[in-house]
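Side project, low priority. Logging it here so it doesn't get lost.
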Amino acid sequence: MTFTPIDRAHWARKEYFDHYFSQVPCTYSAVFQLDITRLRQQGQKLYPTMLYHIAAEVNLHAEFRTALDGAGQLGIYDRMHPCYTIFHKESETFSSLWTEYTPDYEAFCEAYRRDMAQYGGNLGMEAKPGTPENTFPVSMLPWASFEGFNLNLQKGYDYLLPIFTMGRYQETGGKTLLPLAVQVHHAVCDGFHLCRFVNGLQARLDGTQVHEEKEP
C-alpha cells in the first residue's frame, strides 16, 4: 500500500475541498438501478462479482481513493480493497470481511472464497482481523429493493471514501436491475465524478469497458 499526500497549496481542487470539507461540510448519496442482466445470464455469483467490479472501478479513479490517513493527512491510496458485510442467519447479526483486490477476476473470486471459508463463520463486527486503512465499505440488503437510501453518520463529514449499498435485484422489462446506493463526500467527489463512476461500472457489467488504467 502506498499513500501519496496531496500538496493542498497547489492542488487544483483546493478551493472546492475547503468549501465542502470546512465551510459547508457536505456528503450526498444517490441510488442507481444497475443492469445486471448479462451477469445473471452468465451465471456468475452475484456478491463477489459485484465486489470485484465495484473495486475495479474504484481503483480506476483517484477521487474514490482519496482519504485522510490515521494521522489526518490528506492523500490518495494507490490501491483500494473492498470491506464487505456478511449476514449470520442464526444470530441475525452481521460481520465485516475484507478481500485483497486484484485485477484478475478469477483470482479475486478465489481469494473471496478463501476468506469466506476461513472467516465467514466468525461472529463479531470484524470477522477477519487486520482490516487495512485502504479499504472501502460495501454492504448488501438482499431482502428488499429500494429507490432511495441514505446513511446518517454523526462523524461522516471527516470520512472521504465512498460507501456502497446494494439491494435486492428485480426483473423488469426483460432486464435484471440491481439498486446500488453510493454515498460520497462532496469535498472530493462531484456529481460528474459520481456519474462517470456509475457509467463505468455499468460498462463493466455490460462487458464494454474500454479503460483499465488509473488516472494520474
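Brief comment: The chain has five helices and ten strands.
Revisit when time allows.
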